[in-house]
Write the structure tokens for this entry.
Amino acid sequence: MEDTVLIVEDEADVVDLLRYNLKRAGFKVLVATSGDAGLTAVRTHRPDIVVLDLMLPGMSGLEVCRALKQDPKTIHIPILMLTAKDEQKDRVKGLETGADDYVGKPFSPRELVLRVQALLRRLRTTAASTSLIELDGLTLDKSSLQARIDGERLELTTTEFKLLITLVNNRGRTLGRDDLLRDVWGYSPGMDTRTVDTHMRRLREKLLGHAPRLETVRGEGYRFNVLPDS
Ligand code: CA
């Protein structure tokens, strides 16, 4: 069955461009033209992915994103945010509310379709495996996309979960930002985005007592450290 993309955007020409290109790529496309309508559409139709504009009448894209990522029923639906070009502040804000990635306007429709496909593929490969990883009080369940610390559930987005599992699977090894963009976001080389660092910061906040194990290796990337006695 075809995947459903919900476009939340009020500018008609941007909607037309997105709808045309996503349909051509084989997606079923739904459209909402305000923040409030977007939130209702996600809750009603449970799309596979949301392309969410930041600037919307009524509820802003940030508010919609925050609402979806705080609700356990919708936290796993990937969100690709559209931001104004070079609005670094907007991007950072979008990612901090839990968006899985952003694309700046004006965007290349081809690149946007590639990113939507990559984010969905990434979701499938995570969900398809069933094993459980346990490491010093940290438990990762790949089938339910749930992480726990000493039995307590962490509210992670799909991207945060995939990021954590990739780091844990490679524990003791430094992973570069390019490696992470490929393995976590499913991006091919040349798809440049600064999304990694913001996600890492959010993940650290959620890891509580385990946060110090997630080390930034200056000039190289990130490493999840093994505890000395394990
Ligand atoms: Ca807009």
Summary: The chain has two domains: 4-125, 129-224.
